[in-house]
Predict the 3D structure of the following.
Amino acid sequence: ADLTQQQQRQQTMATADTDTGKERYKVGETTVIPNRPKLSIAHDPNDESMTCATYVITNEDHTLGNMLRHMTMKDDAVEFCGYSVPHPSEKKIHLRLQTRAPATTNEVLRRALNNTKDLCAHVLDTFNASVQQAQSSSGR
């Protein structure tokens, strides 16, 4: 039986990955590699105040990296924040964060994540209200 190109891609995505020996699953246009930690932290062992860290976030790209960088830089306790995608074929970002004591990098990142969640909820609520208003004004 002939397979369409999409079916062939789906079969290829579901086969074992030769590099990791783990299966990959396609979600939308993103390849998700299961059984990997979503977040790992590399702290400087000499930094007891926990004011410098690099966070490795798997299965993410520039979308989350840029938003987290932006939301983190709005915090007054932040000295530096930047992110990078090590390689286009790797589905992970490195978020480098440096804070002013006594704020720790974990505290600042948690605040940035909560602020991001609140912002996304506000955008979604505003969008839904606009859709409802448009539908009611058009007579639907």
Notes: Helices lie at 5-14, 62-73, 105-137. The longest helix spans residues 105-137.
